[in-house]
């Protein structure tokens, strides 16, 4: 029943035979190059127009901002049409072109746009009216736009033109329960039905991946079929499944297989698909892999907890990733490895699948470095790295090389960088650390969104990891003053503070850090200021600001 079937990822994109076997599509099969999604800035670049024409851009909180376009401005419409004519001349064979909001939460609230929003009952109102006008000029093309986050709710008055495609996205939803039966997804169900009343040209963008921790366990196999069946039941036949389909990502080979089969026939027996795949891909280890899959599935079904597409493993450390459950999972993998010990190909497949468990254990250990699941034993003031954890990191890295697993998350953190970042993280800063477990104050206090705003993390001897949710503090749009009280006057040679760069989460290094020291908390000596002068379009994940006292 589905006319467009895209299981997004390296398997379908890099291997034409795989794609042909499963009868899958790519983005390029439908969309013009460079015009798939989030195209406002491509059509009217703020870098080109904002200085001379701020009125082309969104009005928010009393000023113009670069985040989005002002869609009630007729000059913006003229610019978009002009740019599309130029671009279409370069790709005359391409039929679908995206005119869609940038990937942020802002939208224009000028007097004219606000009036349309009120009339339509949704910020989608100005978008659909604007896109309809664009579509009039290109009757032989399809203009695609987003129903995403703030624009997901359908307008009440304006119907999309016949040659307008609505790209409906499920990004906010829980992944542990079928959408149709999850009370927290009721607003999406309403929105989907409302869009269905306005148009039959809907392209469904579903998310079946943990973007921030793509390698980590993400037990959502049981919701794939009911969700696809729901979409088809509602007349949606164009599907983009954004899944964790890269080598090393959690059960990526299996999930890609199941999704591809269900997009062709949503009513297949999923348990049979899982059996068929695990027997073929893991050989004699298939039984133990299934034990692992179904055990974890049972655990999340018990709790019904929210499964988040940006959730770190530590969120589930007391449920499906509890210590007891992890022990059982590891036993399954021990037996799986033993079952195929004599076959290097099957063994690598098993070890690659095990990377998910290893990653989860290492990340949970980072959240409580000295606890029972942490990286260190503490005895009489001495900190001893647990050999099992160190060996796990080495095994993870070795498998990533053999399997050619590249990325840990959507931000592009490689397995090699993760390995190096974790090595850095577990190098405790205790010996000769004068600030170890000393009191810290900050003005203003850090946001509770980042590690609960716990200032003790700054002096606990543990560096921040690659994930902002683990051992990082954050301030949003504020300058902060941090004071570490060493409790006595002691000679200090070097002072260091680190920062994190995670642009996907809108996290950048501070533009500058100034360091001062004092003997009495009253008179201060300035050790200098270190600045980052570029715009941080690209930057190192961790940056250390180091100040010498001499």
Detailed description of the structure:
- By secondary structure, the chain is α/β, with parallel strands linked by helices.
- Among the domains are: 31-154, no CATH class; 291-425, no CATH class; 439-548, no CATH class.
- It is 36% helix and 17% strand.
- A 6-stranded parallel sheet has the order 1-8-7-6-5-4. It has a two-stranded antiparallel sheet with strand order 2-3. A two-stranded antiparallel ribbon has the order 9-10.
- Helix 12 (286-303) packs antiparallel against helix 13 and helix 15 runs antiparallel to helix 16 (415-425).
- The chain is globular.
Descriptive labels:
alpha/beta, single chain, 6-stranded parallel β-sheet
Question: What is the compact description of this entry?
Answer:
Helices cover 36% and strands 17% of the residues.
Task: Give the helices and strands, then pairings.
Elements: E1 4-9, H1 10-14, H2 16-22, H3 40-43, H4 46-49, E2 57-60, E3 63-69, H5 74-90, E4 96-98, H6 111-120, H7 124-136, E5 142-147, E6 164-169, H8 186-198, E7 202-208, H9 221-233, E8 238-245, H10 252-264, H11 270-282, H12 286-303, H13 323-339, H14 344-367, E9 376-379, E10 382-385, H15 387-403, H16 415-425, E11 439-443, E12 481-485, E13 494-500, E14 512-517, E15 525-531, E16 542-548
Parallel strand pairs: 1-8, 4-5, 5-6, 6-7, 7-8
Antiparallel strand pairs: 2-3, 9-10, 11-12, 13-16, 14-15
Helix pairs in contact: 9-10, 10-11, 11-12, 12-13, 13-14, 14-15, 15-16
């Amino acid at each position: 029943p589905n006319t467009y079937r895209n299981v997004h990822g390296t398997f379908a994109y890099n291997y034409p035979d795989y794609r042909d076997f499963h009868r899958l599509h790519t983005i390029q099969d439908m969309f013009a190059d460079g015009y798939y999604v989030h195209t406002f800035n491509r059509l009217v670049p703020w870098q080109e127009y904002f200085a001379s024409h701020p009125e082309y851009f969104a009005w928010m909180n009393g000023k113009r901002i670069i985040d989005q376009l002002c869609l009630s401005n007729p000059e913006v419409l003229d610019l978009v049409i002009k740019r599309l004519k130029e671009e279409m001349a370069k790709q005359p064979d391409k039929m679908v072109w995206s005119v869609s909001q940038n990937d942020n939460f802002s939208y224009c609230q000028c007097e004219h746009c606000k009036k349309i929003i009120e009339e339509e009952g949704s910020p989608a109102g100005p978008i659909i009216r604007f896109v309809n006008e664009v579509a009039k000029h290109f009757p032989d093309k399809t203009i695609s736009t987003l129903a995403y986050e703030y624009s997901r709710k359908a307008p009440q008055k304006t119907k999309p033109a016949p040659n307008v495609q609505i790209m409906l996205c499920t990004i906010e939803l829980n992944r542990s329960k079928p959408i149709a039966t999850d009370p927290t997804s009721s607003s999406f169900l309403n929105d989907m039905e409302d869009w269905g009343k306005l148009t039959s040209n809907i392209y469904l963008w579903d998310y079946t991946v943990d973007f921030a921790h793509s390698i980590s366990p993400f037990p959502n196999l049981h919701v794939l079929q009911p969700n696809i069946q729901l979409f088809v039941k509602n007349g949606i036949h164009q599907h983009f499944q954004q899944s964790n389909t890269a080598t090393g990502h959690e059960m990526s080979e299996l999930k890609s297989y199941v999704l591809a089969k269900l997009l062709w026939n949503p009513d297949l027996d999923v348990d049979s698909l899982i059996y068929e795949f695990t027997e073929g891909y893991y050989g004699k280890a298939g039984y133990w892999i299934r034990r692992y899959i179904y055990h974890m599935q049972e655990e999340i079904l018990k709790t019904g907890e929210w499964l988040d597409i940006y959730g770190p493993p530590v969120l589930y450390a007391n449920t499906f990733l509890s210590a007891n459950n992890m022990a059982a999972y590891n036993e399954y993998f021990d037996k799986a490895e033993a079952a195929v010990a004599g076959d290097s190909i099957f063994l690598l497949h098993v070890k690659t699948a095990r990377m998910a468990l290893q990653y989860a254990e290492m990340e949970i250990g980072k959240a409580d470095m000295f606890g029972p699941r942490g990286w260190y034993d503490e005895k009489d003031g001495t900190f001893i790295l647990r050999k099992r954890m160190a060996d796990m990191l080495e095994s993870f890295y070795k498998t990533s090389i053999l399997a050619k697993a590249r990325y840990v998350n959507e931000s592009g953190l490689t397995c090699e960088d993760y390995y190096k970042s974790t090595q850095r993280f577990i190098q405790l800063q205790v010996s000769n650390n004068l600030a170890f477990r000393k009191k810290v104050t900050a003005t203003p206090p850090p946001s509770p969104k980042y590690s609960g705003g716990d200032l003790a993390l700054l002096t606990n001897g543990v560096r921040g990891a690659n994930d902002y949710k683990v051992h990082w503090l954050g301030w949003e749009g504020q300058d902060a003053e941090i004071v570490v009280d060493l409790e006595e006057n002691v000679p200090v040679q070097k002072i260091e503070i680190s920062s994190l760069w995670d642009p996907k989460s809108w996290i950048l290094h501070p533009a500058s850090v100034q360091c001062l020291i004092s003997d009495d908390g009253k008179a201060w000596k300035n050790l200098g200021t270190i600045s980052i002068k570029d715009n941080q379009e690209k930057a190192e994940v961790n940056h250390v600001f180091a100040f010498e006292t001499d």
